[in-house]
């Protein structure tokens, strides 16, 4: 187990690895250190039968950490998005099942993290949003279309609104709608099922039942992020969101 003052808490219960995003004050947004910690934890998890990814606090993950964007260049942003894409590929191509237990806000790269998992459990009341195409970023687009179909992916990506947990299940973005109080029992059941096959058989089965678009997805991301003006596009989108929030009537 890692210390609970780190960005990522790693716990192990026999052959089940749990990775808890531990940046609750930042809605578990994906800072570079957290991305690298996740990659390292998965690299070192060859002997597990199942992994769980969840978020500490009120939210699963609010997406890419933009708190220091004023200090970043287009090249810095490109590098960070490439590292996130490589993390998503590692999850998607994992030889063992990776389960997402998500609640609260599931946004941007956080929604891509959720979508990359084998089982995608969402709590009632959660909201999911994928705004990346507002700044013309092709992160996870191919995987999303393979998961929920081209039409549903286009509808989701062209619309700037959030969708509910129920809508996420309806379109296949989430696989299960389960309250947090029942997550422990569900995880135990999934762990038993994950151990039903020999480890090597599970790995082969996982490989044969998923789409592998690693080269296409990485190339699409790099092409989109390498176009000059990435930082300006992100900042413009953030400004539009803030203006919209200021105009929204108070509840």
UniProtKB/TrEMBL annotation:
The protein's Enzyme Commission number: 4.2.1.17
Lineage: Bacteria, Pseudomonadati, Pseudomonadota, Alphaproteobacteria, Rhodobacterales
One BP term from GO: fatty acid beta-oxidation
Protein's organism: Tritonibacter multivorans
Key word Lipid metabolism present: yes
One Gene Ontology molecular-function label: enoyl-CoA hydratase activity
Pfam families membership: ECH_1
Superkingdom of source: Bacteria
Uppermost EC category: lyase
Keywords: Lipid metabolism, Lyase
Gene3D superfamilies documented for this protein: 2-enoyl-CoA Hydratase, Chain A, domain 1 (3.90.226.10)
Name of this chain's protein: Putative enoyl-CoA hydratase echA6
CDD domains: crotonase-like
